[in-house]
Give the backbone structure.
Amino acid sequence: MKKHTSTFLLTVILLLAFAMPAAGQSDAEYLLKVSKVIGTNLGSQINGTFKLGIDGDMGVVKSVEYRIDGMAIGTASESPFTLVFKTTDHPAGGHALTAVVTKSDGSSFETPARKFTFITSEDAGEVLNKVLLPILGITFGVVAVMMLMQFVLFRNRPLAQLEPGAPRNYGFKGGAICKNCGRPFALHMWSINLLPTVRYDRCDYCGKWGVQRSASMAALRMAEQLELAKSKPEVPVAEKTEEEKLKEMLDQSKYTR
Ligand SMILES: [Zn+2]
């Protein structure tokens, strides 16, 4: 047990010892900055127009020569000592970028090299397709799976039984007026947000899925009253013929699935 611990400590010390010189490199007097003007920047894979600059004590800088693979591509002799270049002016592939800073005392310093791969415009488009399209695909896939799960889970859920016109509690998500049956219902926690006020949800009364728009409380209360008005004229009908009863049953069965 003790031996195990000391081996672990030794490993940590060795790791630290190796990490130190690497960390020390960032103590460089000046560092090369690369920023995108127009184009594609996928980590170290770049394409387009980029701006080169330096980080460090700018007060003593006289001029900065920028280099690609050791070859000068331009010199900036005025503050802020930046240079704009196009990756397409250089062969595609891996390149090392550096800046040679000449100070007012005549001494010069070359920044640590930064490695970039210049990609062609076609590759840039292809990489975007490879990266962005799968992300879009996954997003749509997740939404599709969620919808499918809800269909399966709630398919056999009994429809809510509520007296027409009964005031109901619309809760946290508010309510919507069903596009299919016109009855107001409380939006569900599991409804899918399509837009801030538009949800894909299932009506409690007719069981139909649809795009539902959040309604104002006033509109919801009005819809409740409308239910009442709709249901009232049916009450005085005393006796139904067998044919009417059958027709009603058929009508109802249409909405239970
Ligand atoms: Zn409905």
